[in-house]
Amino acid sequence: MEIATKFTNWEVPELSALQDSKAYQLREHLNKGGKLNRVEKNWLTEAINGNTYFRRGIPLRGWRFDFTDVVHLYWVKQFGHISEYYAVDKTALRSILHGVIDEIVELI
User: In terms of domain of life, where is this protein from (predicted)?
Assistant: First the structure.
């Protein structure tokens, strides 16, 4: 999988300028066959759910870091409502949610 793809029409820095970013390092690590540890899973889940550009990726300075291959779709019932989230796993999803969670269902 590519490290990132450009998603803007304007000039952006070279992708190599982002090598020190967490998103770049995680995508590179996964591309080399590496596995994520708990801190990385939690960070990735928070970063994906904390942006308004992409549901399964992270925007960074005009580049999209796609993590479709490692995130899954979940429905969460909480406070009488069902919400949709993308997360690496249920534990990472719980780390970003606050309050009582009635149920988490992974959609396949």
Answer: Bacteria
Q: What is the pLDDT of residues 45-102, one digit of tens each?
A: 999 999 999 999 999 999 999 999 999 999 999 999 999 999 999 999 999 999 999 9
Tell me, what amino acid is at 25?
Answer: Q
Indicate if 30 and 79 belong to the same structural domain.
Answer: no
Number of structural domains (the chain) is 2
Give the domain extent around 94: 72-107
Q: pTM of the full predicted structure?
A: 0.93
Same-domain pairing of 15 and 52 = yes
